[in-house]
Amino acid sequence: MKKVNYFFIMLGLILTQATSNCSAQANEEQYAKAYKYKLEYKYKEAFPMFQVLLKSDSNNLNYVQYASYCYSKYGFFYAPEAEKMNYYKIAEYLSLKAIKLHEASADAHYAYAMALGRINENASSKQKIANAKLIKSQVDRAIALNPRLAGAYHILGRWHRTIAGFNAVEKMMINSFFGGVPPGGSYDDAIKAFMTAISLEPKYMNHQYELAETYYEMGKKVEAKLWAQKALEIIPTNDDDKKAKADCEALLKKI
Predict the structure, then answer these.
(1) What whole-number distance in Å separates Cα of residue 104 and Cα of residue 145?
(2) Contact predicate 84/126, CB 8 Å
(3) Burial class, 25, CB count within 10 angstroms (exposed 0-12 / middle 13-18 / buried 19+)
(4) What's the angle, vertex CA 88, arms to CA 51 and CA 125, rounded to 5?
(5) Which of 108, 179, 193, 253 supports an S-S bond with 157, CB 3.0-4.6 Å?
(6) How far is it between the farthest Cα atoms of the chain?
(7) What is the CB neighbour count within 10 angstroms for residue 226?
(8) What's the half-sphere exposure (Cβ side, CA atoms, 13 Å) at 9?
(9) Residues near 124 by Cβ (< 8 Å), separated by ≥ 6?
(10) What is the mean pLDDT of each run of 10 residues along the chain (255 residues)?
């Protein structure tokens, strides 16, 4: 009787291990597909896949940090206006969790900076300024960990341009929060950051559009027109490109 029980116990353990191995293999295959979609900027396809992966293992660093990234991107492109902030808040929560799982992950810090940037799009001037130092620290950390992370330079460029474009009231608030303007925050710094992003991802249209927009804000219309036209030479293949194309066309009309 004891031998029979032992046999069934061992059989159960073997079957459990086999099931676990199959599940792990399925997750690896799902992750490979989801990550490929992310690299191709196909957020509509990547987002639900990372949601499923996250449910299967909520402590897997890659699932958590890339789910955060997709919540920011999917929320921006596809979520109804009234629900966007919920997506960004989830992205913020997941990115913070990813940082706790592995502080030395550049993608986790990048995802956190991205989530904060999206939250700031609909924030008051006071909240934007309060978050400015945090965004800068996160993007600086991401770049320190991975100097080839183009998206981090993109956020850095937008950060510098935003600070440079603050009005007198906002600059007074900066003095209140920081005792002065944080390091950087100039149009020249923004140009340098976008140029670096372009050198790392020359076929990503949005880097070139943001550079054109920066030149336009500086009053350098010749350079703005040049980079907007250069961006339009890229064939749009994803939602980021399509938005950048529309933005470039709108910018050229203003010029």
Answers:
(1) 7
(2) no
(3) exposed
(4) 175
(5) 193
(6) 89
(7) 15
(8) 6
(9) none
(10) 50 46 73 94 95 94 97 96 95 98 98 95 74 90 98 96 80 67 80 98 96 97 97 93 96 95
